[in-house]
Amino acid sequence: MLYHQERHITHLDLDTFFVSVECLRNPALLGKPVLIGGSGDRGVVASCSYEARKFGIHSAMPMKIARRLCSHAIIVRGDMEAYSKYSRLVTNIIQDTVPLFEKSSIDEFYVDLTGMDKFFGCQLFSGELKKKIYKESGLPISFGLASNKLISKVATNEVKPNGQIEIPFGNEKIYLAPLSIAKLPGVGKQTALLLFKMGVETVKVLSEIPIEMMQNLLGKSGTDLWRKANGIDETPVVPFHEQKSISTENTFQQDTIDIHFLNSELVRMTEKIAFELRQQNKLTGCITVKLRYSNFETFTRQLTIPYTNADHIILKTAKELFAKLYERRMLIRLIGIRFTNLIPGNYQISLFDDTQESINLYQAIDSVKKRFGEDLLIRATGARKV
């Protein structure tokens, strides 16, 4: 228990991040029901303002339904480049202010303030950081301060928008008790429905179910859920700079100058690690292409991009980098590609201009790859000649 007692974790969450960025760019949107996403009937809602949520609209909802619920809603096409820029701005502000933080998504952060209570006071420090972020970025942000990541995240969600709260150590279970089980992170619709049918509606009731029963009901996830209901979370804050890269490279059996072969290898390798990126539920913010010539000279080019893990965006960037890199007519012995600046996230937020069918296509392709092997389904340009 000493481990929990010494921890002070602040969860920071930018309020309706995409909408807030759009309001900064166009103040006329403030206080209006705003939908971010594709404007066509087959588009999806990537984000929406609190004013729009009052009509029952939520993210990932088909735009056609959202427009029926609120006919006077203002639809804004998403701009991932702008959102990535502001996300990096806030990241830099936090990085300059605290010694240890984790970027858990494009608009969420965990800050480990353990030990700060002896000097400055964690609540006061978090409040000052909140003000600093708003002053330097113009973006409203909420925070929850608690003894672990779970409680701090739940608390933040409860006080949004533009709120702040501290849950003192020892009050974790008391705080969670009256909340709906749907408020616990990781409780999906199916699990919630199952528990509701059993009469389990609040976290208090869930916490009182024997752990063995939860294991029998949901397996390992049942154990995890029981721990959450009891306010237990020992997950560490993972330093942002330690986020790993995802990369692959290929040294050819014979040095080559065959541009078609090199392009097909680039496509194949890029698709391979883009699939891996999505399997890890991550987005990349920087792509690097590497070439090694037959004389062993090695050159790289990289480009910072809006956060994404969509093949069509990543492939376009990789090809552009390769075209700029391959200026010499010398034999190539190695080609490589690397994704860095990784953050948790899914590809739906990158598909503002795409339809629900596009999202479904990505999900279907990944499902086939996951079940039968990633090499079974590839782009024709990435296929190796037999």
From TrEMBL:
<dbReference type="Pfam" id="PF21999">
    <property type="entry name" value="IMS_HHH_1"/>
</dbReference>
<keyword id="KW-0239">DNA-directed DNA polymerase</keyword>
<feature type="domain" description="UmuC">
    <location>
        <begin position="9"/>
        <end position="188"/>
    </location>
</feature>
<keyword id="KW-0460">Magnesium</keyword>
<keyword id="KW-0234">DNA repair</keyword>
<feature type="active site">
    <location>
        <position position="108"/>
    </location>
</feature>
<dbReference type="GO" id="GO:0003887">
    <property type="term" value="F:DNA-directed DNA polymerase activity"/>
</dbReference>
<dbReference type="GO" id="GO:0003684">
    <property type="term" value="F:damaged DNA binding"/>
</dbReference>
<keyword id="KW-0515">Mutator protein</keyword>
<dbReference type="Pfam" id="PF00817">
    <property type="entry name" value="IMS"/>
</dbReference>
<keyword id="KW-0227">DNA damage</keyword>
<dbReference type="InterPro" id="IPR043128">
    <property type="entry name" value="Rev_trsase/Diguanyl_cyclase"/>
</dbReference>
<keyword id="KW-0479">Metal-binding</keyword>
<feature type="site" description="Substrate discrimination">
    <location>
        <position position="18"/>
    </location>
</feature>
<comment type="similarity">
    <text>Belongs to the DNA polymerase type-Y family.</text>
</comment>
<dbReference type="InterPro" id="IPR017961">
    <property type="entry name" value="DNA_pol_Y-fam_little_finger"/>
</dbReference>
<dbReference type="GO" id="GO:0005829">
    <property type="term" value="C:cytosol"/>
</dbReference>
<keyword id="KW-0235">DNA replication</keyword>
<feature type="binding site">
    <location>
        <position position="13"/>
    </location>
    <ligand>
        <name>Mg(2+)</name>
    </ligand>
</feature>
<dbReference type="GO" id="GO:0006281">
    <property type="term" value="P:DNA repair"/>
</dbReference>
<dbReference type="GO" id="GO:0042276">
    <property type="term" value="P:error-prone translesion synthesis"/>
</dbReference>
<dbReference type="InterPro" id="IPR001126">
    <property type="entry name" value="UmuC"/>
</dbReference>
<dbReference type="GO" id="GO:0000287">
    <property type="term" value="F:magnesium ion binding"/>
</dbReference>
<dbReference type="InterPro" id="IPR053848">
    <property type="entry name" value="IMS_HHH_1"/>
</dbReference>
<dbReference type="InterPro" id="IPR036775">
    <property type="entry name" value="DNA_pol_Y-fam_lit_finger_sf"/>
</dbReference>
<dbReference type="InterPro" id="IPR022880">
    <property type="entry name" value="DNApol_IV"/>
</dbReference>
<dbReference type="Pfam" id="PF11799">
    <property type="entry name" value="IMS_C"/>
</dbReference>
<keyword id="KW-0808">Transferase</keyword>
<keyword id="KW-0238">DNA-binding</keyword>
<dbReference type="GO" id="GO:0009432">
    <property type="term" value="P:SOS response"/>
</dbReference>
<keyword id="KW-0548">Nucleotidyltransferase</keyword>
<comment type="subunit">
    <text>Monomer.</text>
</comment>
<protein>
    <recommendedName>
        <fullName>DNA polymerase IV</fullName>
        <ecNumber>2.7.7.7</ecNumber>
    </recommendedName>
</protein>
<keyword id="KW-0963">Cytoplasm</keyword>
<dbReference type="InterPro" id="IPR050116">
    <property type="entry name" value="DNA_polymerase-Y"/>
</dbReference>
<dbReference type="InterPro" id="IPR043502">
    <property type="entry name" value="DNA/RNA_pol_sf"/>
</dbReference>
<comment type="function">
    <text>Poorly processive, error-prone DNA polymerase involved in untargeted mutagenesis. Copies undamaged DNA at stalled replication forks, which arise in vivo from mismatched or misaligned primer ends. These misaligned primers can be extended by PolIV. Exhibits no 3'-5' exonuclease (proofreading) activity. May be involved in translesional synthesis, in conjunction with the beta clamp from PolIII.</text>
</comment>
<dbReference type="GO" id="GO:0006261">
    <property type="term" value="P:DNA-templated DNA replication"/>
</dbReference>
<feature type="binding site">
    <location>
        <position position="107"/>
    </location>
    <ligand>
        <name>Mg(2+)</name>
    </ligand>
</feature>
